[in-house]
Amino acid sequence: MNNQTKTVAFHTLGCKLNFSETSTIARNLKDSGYQKVEFTDPANVYVINTCSVTANADKECRTIVKNAMKANPEGFVVIVGCYAQLKPQEIAEMEGVDLVLGAAEKFNIAEYLDDLNKKEETIVHSCEIEEADFYVGSYSIGDRTRAFLKVQDGCDYKCTYCTIPLARGISRSDTVENVIKNANEIAERGIKEIVLTGVNIGDYGKGEFGNKKHEHTFFELVQELDQVEAIERIRISSIEPNLLKNETIDFVSKSNRFVPHFHIPLQSGNDEILKKMKRRYLSNLYLDRVSKIREVMPHACIGVDVIVGFPGETEELFMETYNFINELPISYLHVFTYSERDNTEAIDFEGVVDQGERKRRNKMLRILSEKKRQAFYQSQLGSTQKVLWEHDNKDGKMFGFTENYVKVQTEFNAEFVNQTHLVDLVRINHNGIVEVKINELELAK
């Protein structure tokens, strides 16, 4: 083993934050002499970065372990991420798993890979979550025309359905200096777009070791990043409505780099349910945030997270949420079905919603999401927009996204890859993607 290059394969479940952290772990292992291969290849080591937002994510982890064992029965399987922190012993009982690393250990993975022989008993290194009080910056590169840049980790909120604080610890942030340094490193690799990620990025600025004082604000970070000339576009990923301030919305509307795209978790449109969830806003504040964005950026894309089937959500209360979203001028939804999670308050709440009913409500909102997206795309037809083209060639077509997150396609042209072009939005095709033609101004260049 020592005389040949060791190979490692990665599989990431869950959020953009996980993707950024997997990329950082991959770079660390490359520095330790590992060569990255595809997950379907026979590798010496398989690293699975897990999520645990829903029960389904746990089941998915088992499936991925089996896939690794198919690719190489002798492969050394390492599980990291939120599921690994929350339920290390449960993972340790899975056939094929050799090593489980918690929140504090995952970034030092190379130190745990001295002996890559399969283990009869799974080794677990998982700290108490209180020990995850330090910050490790990370960003993902290499597989897209955009990079996910982590600026914050952990959460101090106490939402009654959520295990993230148990899995990732207290809210803590990178320094402004290091975020800017990482942004410039990303730009040096030719990447044109950055997506800012974290667990609760609007809470940006809290230092390490449980320091609750904000050294900086999220708005100050946005102002500093806007000065990074080498990056063409910056997107703000999911941000809590109570932390998305007017000053940030106004700044984005006039910014050179921040694009008119916001993703704002709602979770419920009913105030009674929002209070039971221990969210830090009510529906009126949410409506205010959406109205403010629409006022200064009429063409902005606004995405919404919503949970269906929370305990106590009667049909009447669900329809309040449905109607609230239906009347909101938003662009798409991410719909989550509530699932019971150990060690959360909500697991003991009364008014459990039947699983079949949860699925029905999920489907209703997914259909509403498609209608919202279609209406948003329709409203953009006839406009001229900047598109960043991606690498994929699918049946002679290539795809990209406008600044306000409309997915578009044109005939594949290798010279377009990772380039921005002015395009005219022409029509929505049967796949729900907007067909475009290159704008005359672009052709005249």
Structure, described:
The protein is of the alpha/beta class and about 450 residues long. The protein has 4 domains: about 5-125, Response regulator (Rossmann fold, 3-Layer(aba) Sandwich), CATH 3.40.50.2300; about 130-255, Transcription Regulator spoIIAA (2-Layer Sandwich); about 260-380, Transcription Regulator spoIIAA, CATH 3.30.750; about 385-445, OB fold (Dihydrolipoamide Acetyltransferase, E2P). The relative contact order is 0.08. The N and C termini lie far apart (about 55 Å). It has a 6-stranded parallel β-sheet with strand order 2-1-3-4-5-6, with helices on both faces. A 5-stranded mixed β-barrel has the order 15-16-17-19-18. A 3-stranded parallel β-sheet has the order 7-10-11. Helix 8 packs parallel to helix 10. It has helices at about 15-30, 55-70, 80-85, 90, 165-170, 175-190, 220-225, 245-255, 270-275, 285-295, 315-325, 355-380, 440-445; strands at about 5-10, 35, 45-50, 75-80, 95-100, 125, 145-150, 150-155, 170-175, 195, 235, 260-265, 300-310, 330-335, 385-390, 395-400, 405-410, 420-430, 435-440.
